[in-house]
Amino acid sequence: MSRNAIVVINIQRKGIHNLLQYSLESFKDYSKKTNAELIILSFKKLDQKYSLHKQSPYEYLRFEKNQIYDLFGKYNRILRLDNDTIIKKDCPNLFELDSSNFYATREDVGSRKLARLKEIQDIQTQLGIVEGWDSFYFNSGVILASEIHKEAFNLSNLDLTAVKGGMQEQSVLNWLSFKLKFNIVDLGPNFNFMKFFEDDNIGTKKHSHIIHYAGENIEGKVEAFKKDILKYDLKSQSIV
Questions:
Q1: Is the pTM of this model over 0.90?
Q2: How far apart are CA 35 and CA 138, in angstroms?
Q3: 3-class DSSP state for residue 197?
Q4: Nearest to 131 by CA among 183, 180, 185
Q5: What band does 1 get if pLDDT is binned at 50, 70 and 90?
Q6: Distance (Å, rounded) from C-alpha 52 to C-alpha 46?
Q7: Which CATH number fits the domain that encloses residue 55?
Q8: 81 forms bridges with which residues in the sheet?
Q9: ω into residue 189 within 30 of 0, thus cis?
Q10: Lowest mean pLDDT, pick from 16-20, 36-40, 43-47
Q11: Is 140 helix (H, G, I), strand (E, B) or coil?
């Protein structure tokens, strides 16, 4: 019997609002709905191993999302979520999708197209050319991967000091996924809804299943979380 997991990285930083208090209950509900284990990773594990702090001024803690590499083997499939996402009650079971595919939401669309195509060029300049990859750049906030995709989260053979820019973790994951020639399938805006999709008339929050508050400051995220929890009849809880 296959084992599935929903994994969220939530490493609390001093003075930063913990967004998990708004999203945790939706993760718990989805875990029960899909019979997947919910795992919250709250401690640094990769910093010392890969000297991630040397990635400053980039927010190096984002690379800690790659901790899921060590969870494959125990789990056949992992749905990795940023802590600034929330799952609506009508979200279908993503674990029923074809396990041979790597699922993520394409971001080189609409008003972000040129900027994300530039990210593809930049990461190939830094880490090496991936033949045939000149479009399709995905957001790393909602990722569904199977054990066959685990090497996309392996940082061991990379010179991370060569990676620059403001989207390092995301760009590295894109680079590895295309270099390894995985079959990458676009989940579309409904499973990783970000505000720009609605601004560009590509998708709507109303019809989305997973909302991602990427790109907003902490105050904006908190306000949006509170509003949507009420609007979509979701729950939140206080984190001690």
A1: yes
A2: 27
A3: helix
A4: 180
A5: low
A6: 7
A7: 3.90.550.10
A8: 8, 142
A9: no
A10: 16-20
A11: strand
